[in-house]
């Protein structure tokens, strides 16, 4: 029988809920707990995925009480380093959502922690090889855009059925105005 991995999900927003759904379908994965600063978000995520595990609001408490092999860090961008390093200090392998962190020195500290504690650190970059990205990459390599000094892109990370406003990111929403 394959090894049974005991996993915790840290952050239960849209992405954390996707992790719950995906991990809940793997035969060698057992979701043991979730952690979110907002317990109602954790409850909603567990209800959506029909998973029943403890919800923690304190990461250190969850890591103390639960027997885990790995943690998935699904907190908002810019808040990945602290939960990732905290989990690695406890000897857990850590999977971090993209971007791994928003500042290179934070990523370096995460990598150093993985080495120091002898655990694995992985980042999710599932869209790196998408058709649209491959087409853009090829066009850049062919020089079709000339010399590029800077490029940016906006990619909606929500299902088509959810509008930016419903997701909290459209005109008139608090996040659109830079308020959270």
Give the assembly state of these chains: single chain
Low-confidence stretches: 162-180
Number of helices: 6
Given helix and strand content, the structural type is alpha/beta
CATH overall fold name of the largest domain: Rossmann fold
Reading the helices and strands in chain order gives: EHEHEHEHEHEH
Mean pLDDT: 86
| Number of structural domains | 2
Number of strands: 6
- Strand line-up of the largest beta sheet: 3-2-1-4-5-6
Instruction: Tell me the helix content.
Output: 25-40%
CATH architecture of the largest domain: 3-Layer(aba) Sandwich
At the first level of CATH, the class of the largest domain is: Alpha Beta
Radius of gyration: 18 Å
The largest sheet is:
6 strands, parallel
* Shape verdict: globular
Percent strand equals 5-15%
CATH superfamily of the largest domain: NAD(P)-binding Rossmann-like Domain
Distance from first to last alpha carbon: 46 Å
Describe the structure.
With 180 residues, the chain is of the alpha/beta class. It has two domains: 5-123, NAD(P)-binding Rossmann-like Domain (Rossmann fold); 129-180, no CATH class. 35% of the residues lie in helices and 14% in strands. The protein has helices at 14-24, 39-49, 59-65, 81-89, 104-117, 131-141; strands spanning 5-10, 29-35, 55-56, 70-73, 93-96, 121-123. A six-stranded parallel beta sheet has the order 3-2-1-4-5-6, sandwiched between helices. The termini are far apart.
Primary descriptors:
2 domains, 14% strand, 6 helices, globular, disordered C terminus, Rossmann fold, six-stranded parallel beta sheet, 6 strands
């Amino acid at each position: 029988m394959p090894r049974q991995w005991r996993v915790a999900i840290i952050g239960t927003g849209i992405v954390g809920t996707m992790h719950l759904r995906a991990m809940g379908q793997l035969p060698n994965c057992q979701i043991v707990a979730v952690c979110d600063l907002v317990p109602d978000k954790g409850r909603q995520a567990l209800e959506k995925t029909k998973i029943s595990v403890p919800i923690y609001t304190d990461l250190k408490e969850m890591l103390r009480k639960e027997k885990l092999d790995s943690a998935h860090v699904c907190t908002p961008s810019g808040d990945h380093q602290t939960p990732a390093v905290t989990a690695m200090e406890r000897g857990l392998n850590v999977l971090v959502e993209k971007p791994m962190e928003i500042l290179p020195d934070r990523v370096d500290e995460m990598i150093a922690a993985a080495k120091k504690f002898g655990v694995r650190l992985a980042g999710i970059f599932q869209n790196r090889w998408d058709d649209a990205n491959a087409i853009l990459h090829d066009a850049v390599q062919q020089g079709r855009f000339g010399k590029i000094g800077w490029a940016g892109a906006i990619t909606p990370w929500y299902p088509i059925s959810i509008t930016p406003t419903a997701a909290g990111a459209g005109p008139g929403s608090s996040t659109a105005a830079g308020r959270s």
